[in-house]
Amino acid sequence: MAEVSEVLMSVLSTIRVPRPGDRVHKDECALSFSSPESEGGLYVCMNSFLGFGSQYVDRHHTRSGQRAYLHISRSRKAPVRIEGGFNVEQEQYEEEVKVVLLPDRQEVTSDDLATMPDVVRERVSLAMAGLMSADSVSHALQVQQWDGEVRAESRHAIELKQLNNGTKIPPCGWRCEVCDLQENLWMNLSDGRVFCGRRYFDGSGGNNHALLHFQQTGHPLAVKLGTITPDGADVYSYDEDDMVLDPKLPEHLSHFGIDMMTMEKTEHTMTELEIAVNQRVGEWEVIQESGATLQPLSGPGLTGMKNLGNSCYLNSVMQVLFTVPDFQSKYVSNIDKIFNEAPSDPTQDFKTQVAKLGYGLLSGEYSKPAPDPGEGSEPSSEPRVSEWKGDQVGIAARMFKALVGRGHPEFSTNRQQDAQEFLLHFINMVERNCRSGVNPSEAFRFLVEERIVCQQSQKAKYTQRVDYILQLPVPMDQATNTEELQEAERRREEADSSGAPPPAPVRACIPFTACMAALSEPETLTDFWSSAAQAKTTATKTTRFASFPDHMVIQVKKFTFGQDWVPKKLDVSIDVPDTLDLTALRGTGQQPGEDLLPEVAPPPLMTPDAEVKGILGSHGNEEDDSLYSPLLSPVLDDSTVSQLCEMGFPLEACRKAVYYTGNTGIDAAMNWVMGHMDDPDFSAPLVLPGTSSAPGTTPTESFSEEHLATIVSMGFSRDQATRALRATSNVLERAVDWIFSHLDDLESMEVSEGGRSAADSEGSREPPPGPKVRDGPGKYELFAFISHMGTSTMCGHYVCHIKKDQQWVIFNDQKVCASEKPPKDLGYLYFYRRVTE
Predict the structure, then answer these.
(1) Of residues 12 and 294, which shows the higher confidence score?
(2) CATH code at position 65
(3) Where is the USP domain (predicted)?
C-alpha cells in the first residue's frame, strides 16, 4: 500500500475548495437516505461535493475515478440529565471528520495532515474546512423556501397616539382589570390597560374584556403579554381584525415601562394556541385517531416520512402512490438499472430520485423507532412496544422535494399545499419523463365522454378528454341532519349577537349516493351557441366514463368558494363505501338515430381596428400579402370582463375567458376562469389564433438574453425558450413552468433529463398518437384515502390511511401505526383499485 501522503499528492489536483454557488451535499446521500448520523456515516466527494452512503461510495469511485472523500460521521450522545428531565439545549451529536482515500479506504485525520508536506497540508486543510463551513444544499433550500405566516404592518402603528397617563407595566404578575384572569392577557398600546382576550368556542381563552375595551374607546392595537421577547411579540389590531406588525413596538412598549430586550416568552403565541385548539377538537382528533392508543408498526412498506415544514401533503401522496404496483415495478424493481444509468449528478435526475424515495419507503431499512432523547448513541434493536409511540427515524425526502418543486411557484416553497394539486403535478412530471415505454401514470388515466344536446334542435355533440381524478360534488342540500344543522346555526347566531362563545360546530352528513347522483345528473348550459340553430340557445351536458382505469382516484370537492369568492372548506361526513360499482356511468357514444351537431364554428369575434396601416400594413412585405387586410383585434363584452375583474382576477385572464367562451355570458366565462386558474399562462396577454404575439406588439419582440440563456441551459432550443417567454410576458419563472407544461405542444423537443440529452432519455421525442388508456370493469375496492385537517388547503395537516394485508394503517408523517377506527367518512382523496373477477 502506497504511503498516504504520496496518494494524497497524486490526487491533490482533484481536491477542490468549495466556492460560492457550489452545491455541497453533506447531509444526504444522492442514492439513498443515508446521512452523517447513519451507520457508516456519509462520504462527500471532494471534487463534485456529492454525498454517498457507505453502500454507494464505491460505485461512485468506480464510475467517476474520484479517490478523495471527506467522511463525516455523527453519533448521538446522551444529554445531561437535569432536574425535571434532560438538558435538550445541549449539543446532541459528536462529530468525526476525516479524509478517506478509495479504493483502499486509507484514512487521514487533521492530526495526520500536520506531518505531511506543506502543499498537501494546506490544500487538504482548506478543502476540509471549506466543506464543513459551507451551507449544505438542504440548508440553503430551507432558508430559500421558508415562507412563514406573513403579517401586514398595521396602518395605525406609525401614528399611534399613546396617552401620557403615568401607567407603568411591571415585568410580571399581570391580571385582567375586570375579571382578575391571569392568562391570555392583552395590553392596549394606547392607554396601557390590561384585559383578557377572547373566549374560544371550547370555553378556553378569556372573557372578551380586551375586545369590549376597544369597542368602548376605539384604541386599536393591543400586545399579548407573555409573548414579548427581543425578537417581537403578538400584536392584534381590533380595527383591522387581524394579527399585525408594529414596526415601532419597542418604542410603544417603552412608553409604559416595558424593556423589550429583557422580556422572556411565558405564553403561547396565537399561532401555537390555534394549533393546540384545533388538535383538541373536531376532525383533528378523529382523523389522527388521537384518542386511541395505537400499535406502532414497522417493516417493509411501513416507513414514516419526516415533515420538512408543511410537507405532509407530499408525504401522504407519495405513501399512497408507492402502494400502487405500477409505481413499484417502474421505480423500485428497476432501481439497479436506474442507478447504473443515472447521470453524473444524480441529485438532479427525476427517475433516480423517485426510485430512491420508493426504495426508502418499501425496503424497511429506515423503518426503525426514533431514538429516545434520554438514550445514547446505541439504540436498542427492538423497541419497548409499551413505550414506543410510533415515531420512526423515517426518511427526509429533501432532495426529492427540491427536485419536483423546482421552478414551481408553490411546490418550491415551504407553504402548505393542496394534496390533489400536488398529485396532478407529480403525475405530469411522470408523464413527461416517460414519453413512451412503461408509464405508471397510466394506472390512473381514463377518458371522459361529454355529451351536449342542443334543446332547440335536439342534436348532440360528443367530445372526449383525458383525466386522472374524478371530482365528486357535495350537494349540501341533501344532508340527512338538516334540523340539527339549522339548530346549530341558530345557536351560533344567538352567540354572535350576545357576545357569548360560539357553540361547537355540527358536521353535515351527506349520503354518498347523493354525491353520485349529483355527479351523473345533466348540467344545463345557458347561452349555448348551437351550430344547428346558428344562434344561442339552451343545452344539457352529461358526463360519463369512456374508459375505466385500473385505479380510480376520487376527490371530494370539499373546498369551494363562498358568495364573496373567499375559499372555504365544507365540514361534511360522507359514508364512502369500501366497494364501488361505476358500471352504470359508462358512456355509450352516439345513439342509433341520433343526429350530431354540425361542425361549424361560431361567428368570429374579430373586427377591423379603426387604424389601418396602409396597403402592406405596418409589418407587410412585397413577397407576403398575408397582412394586406387591416389589423384585427377581438371584440369583447366589456361588462363581462369588468365583472370578472371586480372578483379579483387578472385583466388578461378575464379577456381570455370572455374570448374563449364566445361572449356567451358571465357564467360561461367564470367556468373558464375556474378551469384555467392553474395554467402557467393564466394571466399572460391574450394571443389570438394565427398570431404569435398579443395585440399591440410587433413580431420583433425583444427578450432578455439572460432569460433565454437560462432556459437554453436546461436543454431547450432557443426557439422553444422564445416561445415560452412570449407566452408568459418575459417572466423567467413562469416561462420555465410554462415550457414544462406544454411539452406536447412543442415540436422536436430536446429536453435535458438530469444532464442527458433526449437521445439518452427514455423513449422517443414524439409522444404516442392519442392518449393511451387502460379499460376494464367499473368495479372497485377502497385501498387508501388521504384526509385533511384545517379550514383551507393552504393550512392544516394531511395524513393518509392505507390498507395493508387487510389491516388499515395510518401514516402521519413519521408516525406509522395500526388504525383502529379509520375515519373513512372524513377523507379528501380516495383511492380505489379495480376488482378482478
Answers:
(1) 12
(2) 3.30.40.10
(3) 303-835
